[in-house]
Design goal:
CATH architecture of the largest domain: Alpha Horseshoe
Helix content: 55-70%
CATH topology of the largest domain: Serine Threonine Protein Phosphatase 5, Tetratricopeptide repeat
Largest sheet: 3 strands, antiparallel
Number of strands: 3
Length: 249
Protein backbone atom coordinates (compact mmCIF):
# COMPACT_ATOMS: atom_id res chain seq x y z
CA UNK A 1 0.00 0.00 0.00
CA UNK A 2 1.16 3.50 -0.80
CA UNK A 3 -0.32 6.48 1.01
CA UNK A 4 0.14 10.01 -0.21
CA UNK A 5 -0.61 12.48 2.54
CA UNK A 6 -1.79 16.03 2.12
CA UNK A 7 -2.03 18.16 5.22
CA UNK A 8 -5.34 19.93 5.65
CA UNK A 9 -6.05 22.55 8.26
CA UNK A 10 -9.57 22.48 9.66
CA UNK A 11 -9.46 25.87 11.29
CA UNK A 12 -11.56 26.81 14.26
CA UNK A 13 -12.77 30.19 15.26
CA UNK A 14 -13.83 31.10 18.72
CA UNK A 15 -12.05 31.67 21.99
CA UNK A 16 -10.78 28.67 23.86
CA UNK A 17 -10.79 26.28 20.91
CA UNK A 18 -7.35 25.19 19.80
CA UNK A 19 -6.67 24.67 16.07
CA UNK A 20 -7.36 21.15 14.89
CA UNK A 21 -5.26 19.67 12.15
CA UNK A 22 -6.69 16.99 9.92
CA UNK A 23 -5.11 14.89 7.28
CA UNK A 24 -6.57 14.14 3.91
CA UNK A 25 -5.20 10.67 3.22
CA UNK A 26 -5.10 9.85 -0.44
CA UNK A 27 -4.64 6.13 0.08
CA UNK A 28 -4.29 3.44 -2.51
CA UNK A 29 -4.67 -0.30 -2.64
CA UNK A 30 -6.00 -1.96 -5.74
CA UNK A 31 -8.93 -3.48 -3.91
CA UNK A 32 -10.22 -0.21 -2.42
CA UNK A 33 -9.30 3.42 -3.03
CA UNK A 34 -9.70 6.92 -1.70
CA UNK A 35 -13.18 7.56 -0.45
CA UNK A 36 -14.33 3.95 -0.66
CA UNK A 37 -16.15 2.66 2.42
CA UNK A 38 -13.21 0.78 3.90
CA UNK A 39 -11.23 -2.24 2.74
CA UNK A 40 -13.08 -4.90 0.83
CA UNK A 41 -13.06 -6.90 -2.39
CA UNK A 42 -12.24 -5.11 -5.66
CA UNK A 43 -15.17 -3.68 -7.55
CA UNK A 44 -16.62 -5.99 -10.16
CA UNK A 45 -14.58 -6.31 -13.35
CA UNK A 46 -11.53 -4.45 -12.00
CA UNK A 47 -8.10 -6.01 -11.38
CA UNK A 48 -6.58 -6.40 -7.94
CA UNK A 49 -2.77 -6.00 -8.26
CA UNK A 50 0.38 -6.57 -10.31
CA UNK A 51 1.64 -5.52 -13.76
CA UNK A 52 -0.99 -7.55 -15.57
CA UNK A 53 -3.66 -5.90 -13.46
CA UNK A 54 -2.32 -2.44 -14.29
CA UNK A 55 -2.36 -3.32 -18.00
CA UNK A 56 -5.96 -4.47 -17.73
CA UNK A 57 -6.81 -1.34 -15.80
CA UNK A 58 -5.32 0.79 -18.57
CA UNK A 59 -7.30 -1.13 -21.18
CA UNK A 60 -10.54 -0.54 -19.28
CA UNK A 61 -9.66 3.13 -18.80
CA UNK A 62 -9.05 3.60 -22.52
CA UNK A 63 -12.42 2.00 -23.18
CA UNK A 64 -14.05 4.65 -21.00
CA UNK A 65 -14.63 2.91 -17.66
CA UNK A 66 -14.69 5.77 -15.16
CA UNK A 67 -13.64 3.69 -12.15
CA UNK A 68 -10.66 2.35 -14.08
CA UNK A 69 -9.77 5.88 -15.17
CA UNK A 70 -9.88 7.04 -11.57
CA UNK A 71 -7.75 4.18 -10.29
CA UNK A 72 -5.23 4.56 -13.08
CA UNK A 73 -5.02 8.26 -12.25
CA UNK A 74 -4.25 7.48 -8.61
CA UNK A 75 -1.65 4.89 -9.65
CA UNK A 76 0.11 7.50 -11.78
CA UNK A 77 -0.16 9.97 -8.91
CA UNK A 78 1.34 7.66 -6.29
CA UNK A 79 3.75 5.70 -8.47
CA UNK A 80 2.22 2.42 -7.32
CA UNK A 81 2.59 -0.26 -10.00
CA UNK A 82 3.74 2.27 -12.59
CA UNK A 83 6.09 5.26 -12.80
CA UNK A 84 4.93 8.42 -11.07
CA UNK A 85 3.50 10.68 -13.78
CA UNK A 86 1.58 13.75 -12.66
CA UNK A 87 0.46 14.67 -16.18
CA UNK A 88 -1.00 11.20 -16.73
CA UNK A 89 -2.58 11.31 -13.28
CA UNK A 90 -4.36 14.57 -14.03
CA UNK A 91 -5.44 13.33 -17.46
CA UNK A 92 -7.08 10.16 -16.14
CA UNK A 93 -8.61 11.91 -13.15
CA UNK A 94 -10.10 14.56 -15.43
CA UNK A 95 -11.58 11.88 -17.68
CA UNK A 96 -13.13 10.11 -14.71
CA UNK A 97 -14.36 13.39 -13.24
CA UNK A 98 -15.96 14.39 -16.53
CA UNK A 99 -18.06 11.23 -16.26
CA UNK A 100 -19.21 12.20 -12.78
CA UNK A 101 -16.80 10.20 -10.60
CA UNK A 102 -17.00 12.06 -7.25
CA UNK A 103 -13.69 10.80 -5.86
CA UNK A 104 -11.87 11.97 -8.98
CA UNK A 105 -13.63 15.32 -8.74
CA UNK A 106 -12.63 15.67 -5.09
CA UNK A 107 -9.01 14.77 -5.81
CA UNK A 108 -8.85 17.32 -8.63
CA UNK A 109 -10.14 19.86 -6.16
CA UNK A 110 -7.30 19.00 -3.79
CA UNK A 111 -4.69 19.16 -6.56
CA UNK A 112 -6.03 22.54 -7.70
CA UNK A 113 -5.99 23.85 -4.14
CA UNK A 114 -2.39 22.80 -3.54
CA UNK A 115 -1.03 23.44 -7.03
CA UNK A 116 0.17 19.87 -7.56
CA UNK A 117 -0.05 18.91 -11.22
CA UNK A 118 -2.44 21.78 -11.87
CA UNK A 119 -2.17 25.56 -11.52
CA UNK A 120 -2.97 26.59 -7.95
CA UNK A 121 -6.47 28.01 -8.15
CA UNK A 122 -8.83 28.03 -5.18
CA UNK A 123 -11.81 28.98 -7.37
CA UNK A 124 -11.30 25.93 -9.57
CA UNK A 125 -10.74 23.80 -6.46
CA UNK A 126 -14.04 24.97 -5.00
CA UNK A 127 -15.83 24.13 -8.25
CA UNK A 128 -14.44 20.58 -8.22
CA UNK A 129 -15.26 20.14 -4.55
CA UNK A 130 -18.80 21.35 -5.21
CA UNK A 131 -19.33 18.82 -7.99
CA UNK A 132 -18.15 16.00 -5.76
CA UNK A 133 -20.13 17.34 -2.80
CA UNK A 134 -23.30 17.46 -4.85
CA UNK A 135 -22.70 13.80 -5.68
CA UNK A 136 -22.75 13.09 -1.94
CA UNK A 137 -19.02 12.72 -1.26
CA UNK A 138 -18.63 13.51 2.47
CA UNK A 139 -14.96 14.55 2.34
CA UNK A 140 -15.73 16.95 -0.51
CA UNK A 141 -18.66 18.33 1.46
CA UNK A 142 -16.39 18.92 4.44
CA UNK A 143 -13.67 20.56 2.35
CA UNK A 144 -16.20 22.77 0.57
CA UNK A 145 -17.47 23.87 3.97
CA UNK A 146 -13.89 24.66 4.96
CA UNK A 147 -13.46 26.82 1.84
CA UNK A 148 -16.63 28.75 2.68
CA UNK A 149 -15.44 29.19 6.25
CA UNK A 150 -12.07 30.59 5.19
CA UNK A 151 -13.18 32.38 2.01
CA UNK A 152 -10.88 30.42 -0.29
CA UNK A 153 -12.18 30.34 -3.85
CA UNK A 154 -15.67 31.36 -2.72
CA UNK A 155 -17.04 34.32 -0.76
CA UNK A 156 -16.63 33.75 2.96
CA UNK A 157 -19.98 32.52 4.25
CA UNK A 158 -20.25 30.84 7.67
CA UNK A 159 -23.86 29.78 7.10
CA UNK A 160 -23.00 28.09 3.80
CA UNK A 161 -20.02 26.45 5.48
CA UNK A 162 -22.32 25.08 8.17
CA UNK A 163 -24.67 23.67 5.53
CA UNK A 164 -21.88 21.62 3.98
CA UNK A 165 -20.46 20.63 7.36
CA UNK A 166 -23.95 19.42 8.26
CA UNK A 167 -24.19 17.26 5.13
CA UNK A 168 -20.73 15.82 5.76
CA UNK A 169 -21.46 15.10 9.42
CA UNK A 170 -24.67 13.32 8.48
CA UNK A 171 -22.53 10.56 6.93
CA UNK A 172 -21.46 9.57 10.45
CA UNK A 173 -17.87 10.75 10.87
CA UNK A 174 -17.53 11.58 14.59
CA UNK A 175 -14.88 14.30 14.15
CA UNK A 176 -17.13 16.17 11.74
CA UNK A 177 -20.03 15.68 14.11
CA UNK A 178 -17.93 17.13 16.94
CA UNK A 179 -17.10 20.27 15.01
CA UNK A 180 -20.67 20.78 13.80
CA UNK A 181 -21.87 20.38 17.38
CA UNK A 182 -19.47 23.12 18.48
CA UNK A 183 -20.84 25.43 15.79
CA UNK A 184 -24.37 24.96 17.10
CA UNK A 185 -23.23 25.25 20.72
CA UNK A 186 -21.43 28.57 20.17
CA UNK A 187 -23.43 29.97 17.25
CA UNK A 188 -20.51 29.95 14.82
CA UNK A 189 -22.16 30.78 11.49
CA UNK A 190 -25.47 29.23 12.57
CA UNK A 191 -28.13 30.25 15.07
CA UNK A 192 -27.19 28.92 18.48
CA UNK A 193 -29.16 25.71 19.00
CA UNK A 194 -28.60 23.61 22.11
CA UNK A 195 -30.71 20.74 20.79
CA UNK A 196 -28.70 20.39 17.59
CA UNK A 197 -25.49 20.93 19.53
CA UNK A 198 -26.36 18.10 21.90
CA UNK A 199 -27.33 15.80 19.02
CA UNK A 200 -24.04 16.13 17.17
CA UNK A 201 -21.82 16.32 20.23
CA UNK A 202 -23.38 13.28 21.88
CA UNK A 203 -23.05 11.28 18.65
CA UNK A 204 -19.40 12.34 18.44
CA UNK A 205 -18.74 11.48 22.09
CA UNK A 206 -20.23 8.03 21.56
CA UNK A 207 -18.15 7.13 18.52
CA UNK A 208 -14.86 8.97 18.96
CA UNK A 209 -11.94 6.84 20.21
CA UNK A 210 -10.74 7.43 23.75
CA UNK A 211 -8.66 10.58 23.99
CA UNK A 212 -8.78 14.37 24.36
CA UNK A 213 -11.26 14.90 21.53
CA UNK A 214 -13.75 12.49 23.06
CA UNK A 215 -13.35 14.21 26.43
CA UNK A 216 -14.00 17.59 24.80
CA UNK A 217 -17.07 16.28 22.98
CA UNK A 218 -18.48 14.79 26.19
CA UNK A 219 -17.88 18.01 28.11
CA UNK A 220 -19.43 20.12 25.35
CA UNK A 221 -22.51 17.86 25.13
CA UNK A 222 -23.04 18.39 28.85
CA UNK A 223 -22.80 22.15 28.34
CA UNK A 224 -25.48 21.92 25.66
CA UNK A 225 -27.69 19.82 27.97
CA UNK A 226 -27.42 22.40 30.75
CA UNK A 227 -28.77 25.11 28.45
CA UNK A 228 -31.93 23.21 27.49
CA UNK A 229 -35.45 23.45 28.83
CA UNK A 230 -37.18 20.16 29.73
CA UNK A 231 -39.03 20.22 26.40
CA UNK A 232 -35.79 20.75 24.50
CA UNK A 233 -34.13 17.95 26.44
CA UNK A 234 -36.94 15.57 25.47
CA UNK A 235 -36.57 16.56 21.81
CA UNK A 236 -32.78 16.21 21.91
CA UNK A 237 -33.02 12.72 23.39
CA UNK A 238 -35.53 11.76 20.71
CA UNK A 239 -33.22 12.99 17.95
CA UNK A 240 -30.34 10.94 19.29
CA UNK A 241 -32.52 7.82 19.51
CA UNK A 242 -33.79 8.37 15.96
CA UNK A 243 -30.33 8.85 14.47
CA UNK A 244 -29.66 8.67 11.56
CA UNK A 245 -33.23 9.03 10.31
CA UNK A 246 -33.66 12.49 11.85
CA UNK A 247 -30.79 15.00 11.65
CA UNK A 248 -32.27 18.33 10.61
CA UNK A 249 -33.13 21.14 13.04
Amino acid sequence: MVIWVLSISRRHTGRGIAPRWGLLLVGLWMGGLLGCPGPGPPRAGLPEAGPAAVALLRQQAVQGAQEAQYRLGVLALTGEGMPHDMSAAVLWLQRAAAQGHPEAQRLLGQLSLTGQGLPRNATVAAAWYRRAAEHGDPEAQWQLGRLYQTGQGVPRNEAEAATWYHQAAAHGDPERQWYLGLKYLHGWGVPQDSVQAYLWLSLAATHLPSGPLRVQATRASRQAAQKMTPAQWTRAQALVRQWPSQTTP
